[in-house]
Amino acid sequence: MTALLVAVRKDFLLQWRGRAQIIAIFAFGAATLLLFSFAIGPDSVALRQHAAGFLWLGLLLASTLSLAESFEREMEEQALEGLLLLPASARALYYGKAIANCAQLAAIGAALVPVMVVLYDAGTIRLLSLLGVIVLGTAGLSAPGTLYAAMTAQTRARQTLLPLLLFPLVVPVLLAAVKATSLLILGDPMGQLRPWVSLLVAFAVVQWALGGLLFGRVVED
Amino acid sequence: MIAVAAEGLCRRYGRRWALTDVSFEVPEGALVMVTGRNGSGKSTLLRVLATAIRADLGTARILGHDLRADRDEVREKTALLGHRTHLYEPLTALENLALVARFLGREGRRSALLERLAEVGLSDRADDPVQTFSAGMRQRLALARVLQQEARVMLLDEPYGHLDAPGFLLVDEVLRRLRAGGATVLMATHLLQRGRALCDRSLVLDGGRLVFAGATAEMPAPAGADGAGFAEGA
After folding, report:
1. Taking CA B151 as the corner, what is the angle to CA B147 and CA B153, rounded to the nearest 5 degrees?
2. Which of A22, A153, A207, B217 is the most exposed place for a label (fewest CB within 10 A)?
3. Is residue A117 within 8 Å of residue A150, measured between CB atoms?
C-alpha cells in the first residue's frame, strides 16, 4: 500500500511537471471535436445526435498521446528499470501509473464537455452522471492503455503500435461510453443507462485486474 | 563468504552472444575491476548480475541468493549504476533521492538527503530539475542514488564516465569508503591505471568470454594499439 501511494505521488508529480503537455493534449481533443463538427455540417439535430460519439472519439485519440507520453519519462533514462531494481513492486508501479493516467484522461474528458456543449449544442442537466460515465470510461481506457503503453514504449514504432493494439481492445468501452453519454444528452425514457454503465464497470474491473497481473511480465526482461 | 558466484553465464542479443560461459567467484568485501574492449560484455555482465536482464544460460548467486529463484532478494542486496542514470529528468535532485528512499521504506528526510547530495558535491543544486544538469552532474546524482540504496553489492558501470578531475577523485573516495564499509564492488572501467591502484581483483572479458580472473597484480597487460588492447587510457 505504501509503495502504491509513493508510485501515485510520483506519477502525479511527473504529470504536474509536464502540465504544458496536458494542455496540448486537451487542445488536440478540442481540435478533433471542432473538425468532427465540420464533417457533419450545420445540421444542429445531427450534431446533437452524434455529440457523444465525437466526444469519446476525441478522448480516445487524445488518450493515445497522453498514454504514450506517460512512459516517455520512464524510458528516457530507464527510470522505471531503476525503480524495479530497488526492488519496487511492479504492481504498485502499474497501478500508480494507471491511476494517474485515469485522472488525467478524466480531467481532459471533463474539460472537453463544455467544448462539446458549445460546438454540438449537446448539454445535459445530469452533469454528475456524465462525469461518472467519463470517469468509468477513462478507467476502461487507461487500464489497458497503460499496459500497452509500457509494452510499446520499448519499441521504435510506438506511436503507431499503441493505437493499433489499444483501439480494438477498447471497442466495448467506446460502445458503452458513447451509448451512456448519448442517453444522458438525448434523454433516457426507457431506462437503458444502467446496463451500459454496468458494462463500463465490468470492463474496467477486468482490465485493471489483468493489468496488475501482466505489467511485471511486460516491463521485465 | 562468497559475495558473487557466477556459473556458466550466457546472454545473447538476437544471434550475437554477448556473454559466453562466464564463471567466477568474488569474495565479500572485494573491490573488483571488470575490464575489456568495447563490446566485450562488461555492461551485460553487470546488468545480468543486477537482474536488469536475464541470463539465457547459467546462473549466479549473490550473497547466496540465486538470480533466477530469489530475484527480489538479489535486488535488495545489489545496486546498479548503469550507462543510463535511472533518474527522472523533470524531478529535482532531491525529489529523485526522496523517491528512492520512500520506495525503500525509509523516511527520506530533507536533511539526510541533502547530506547525501553533499557527498557528491550537489547540495547547492538540490532543488533544480535534473533536466538542467550537465552530464557530469547527472553522473554524480546517479552515484548518490546508488549510494542511497546502501546495498552490499555495488555494480558500477563506468562510474568515472562524464566526470571532471574532482569527480574522478570523488569516485576514488567513494570506492575506498565502500570497501572500508565492507561492501563488495564490481566496477566496469577502461581506466586501467586507476583500476590497478584501487582494485585488488580483476575480471577481463574479451568477446563475451572471461579471459582472466584473479589478482589485479597478475592481470596481463593489454595488447596495445593494434586493436586487440582493451584499455582506452589511464
Report:
1. 110
2. B217
3. no
Which is it for strands B16-27 and B2-13: parallel, antiparallel or unpaired?
antiparallel
Residues A69 and B90: their CA atoms lie apart, in Å, by 13
Four-residue CA torsion sign, B54, B59, B60, B66? positive
pLDDT in tens, B179-223: 999 999 999 999 999 999 999 999 999 999 999 999 999 998 876
Q: Which site among A4, A86, A91, A219 would you substitute to test the B interface, given the most B Cβ atoms closer than 10 Å to its Cβ? A: A86
CB-CB contact of B148 with B122 (8 Å): no
Domain count, chain A: 1
Range of the domain at A213: 2-219
Residues 6+ positions from B37 with CB-CB distance below 8 Å: B206, B228, B229, B230
Residues in chain A within 8 Å Cβ distance of B129: 17
How much of chain A exceeds pLDDT 90, in percent?
91
- State the Cα–Cα distance between residues A193 and A187, nearest whole angstrom: 10
Mean per-residue pLDDT over chain A, rounded: 95
> Looking at this protein, which amino acid is placed at residue B41?
G
Task: Inspect the interface and report whether the beta carbons of B88 and A77 lie closer than 8 Å.
Answer: yes
Set of chain A residues whose Cβ sits within 8 Å of the Cβ of B84 = 77-78, 81
* pLDDT the model gives residue A221: 77
User: How many Cβ pairs closer than 8 A exist between chain A and B?
Assistant: 65
Single-letter residue type at A21: Q
CA–CA gap between residue B33 and residue A198 (Å, rounded):
61
Helix (H, G, I), strand (E, B) or coil at A99: helix
Q: Minimal CA–CA distance to A108: which of A33, A25, A181? A: A25
| Burial environment of residue B173 by CB neighbours within 10 A (0 to 12, 13 to 18, 19 or more) | exposed
Asked if B54 has any chain A CB less than 8 Å from its own CB, the reply is yes
Burial (0-12, 13-18, 19+ Cβ within 10 Å), A206 = middle
Spatial distance between the Cα atoms of A159 and A69, rounded to a whole number of angstroms: 10
CB-based contact (8 Å) between B85 and chain A? yes
pLDDT of B231 strictly over 60: no
Tell me the residue ranges of DSSP E strands in B14-146: 16-27, 31-36, 57-62, 65-66, 78-81
Q: Which residue is closest to B49 within chain A, CA to CA?
A: A85
ipTM, two decimals, is 0.93
